[in-house]
Amino acid sequence: MSDNTRDIVIIGGGHNGLVTAFYLAKAGLKPLVLERRNQVGGAAITEEFHPGFRSSVLAHSSALRSKIVRDMQLETHGLKLIAPEIEQTALSPDGRALVLHGDQQKAAQEIAKVSQKDAQRYPQFQKSVAKIAGVVSHLLTLSPPDIESPNTGDLLGLLKVGRLARGLGKKDMFSLLRWAPMAVADLAAEFFETELLRATVAAQGIFGTFAGPWSAGTGLTYLLRAAHGTPSFAQGGIGAITQAMAAAAQKAGAEVRAGAEVIEISVKSNVAQGVVLSTGEQILARAVISNAVHQAPAELSHEWHGSQGQPCTLSITNL
Length: 319
Description:
With 319 residues, the protein is of the alpha/beta class.
């Protein structure tokens, strides 16, 4: 293999690209991550906004899958995650405040200050959400099956999901089918009478989206967040996570290059053959994976066309 040929080129050094690079390297391949900016991280970066002051720029909290943390041994690469005792505080215009602890008993005690009925229903709601989130969490670990020609692995994976869903019981299985397409505001209203608590619950279904609480499907967003576990904060800002991921990927055998802008994907017979950088450097690869934004701004649209002008469809995997 020449110096300018790689097994796999990954465009974009965000958290998904870094995790992908790590697992490919652990599988014995030699992936190359190319990041346009001068630091990796994508939306998960920490930057200095004033001399001496640093902050998470876009993403601010994380719900990392525990398996990824263990596999990448992120703590050995300097990552320290902090799970606060108080998960949410909601302020009301009338001066009241609703404080939700991670401890359900403490949370119920706080809710009782605004509604005894909601305080009684909150543990029941959390119990159902936790059971359903367990099924969703397992589903997230599966590779999407080939719908037209599923293989044995696809069928076994779906069969296991089916067994887990049956284990929910009739009531919670029906809730899963109903809640996923619902607006999260309607989901919260089914359980709680207090507007402040409804808003606090509904907010979990719209963080990081362009949706509103009455948008269809935000119930599923709420369940997805629950499936990822309790949000945590990285000491040093969200960028500490991607810096640790980059270190883990490099230790596993991946190459990570910052300040390397991909301007073109080389395509031959409708197959990606490699990439071209803004410097003119050409890198050949057996495969090209995109961790870059799927719908690029107009001035970057040329990145998503091949050397002969053909549009390139690239996969983006949410890890």
